[in-house]
Amino acid sequence: MAIFLRTAPRTALPSPAALRLPSLRHLGPNWYATVMGTAIVATAGAALPVHVPGLRAVCVVVWALSAVLLAVVLTARAGHWVLHRDQARAHLLDPAVAPFHGCMAMALLAVGAGTMVAGQDVIGHRAAVAVDTVLFTAGTLAALGVAVVIPYLMVVRHRPARGTASPVWLLPLVAPMVSAAVGPLLVPELAPGQGREALLLACYAMFGLSLLATLVVLPLVFARLVHEGPLPLALTPTLFLVLGPLGQSTTAVNQLADAAPGAVGAPYASAFGAFAVLYGVPVMGFALLWLALSAALVVRAARRGMRFTMTWWGFTFPVGTCVTGAAGLARHTGLDAFTWLAVALYALLVTAWAVAGTRTAAGLFSGTLLAAPRPLRPATARTT
Question: Which tens digit of pLDDT belongs to each residue from 327-351?
Answer without folding.
Answer: 999 999 999 999 999 999 999 999 9
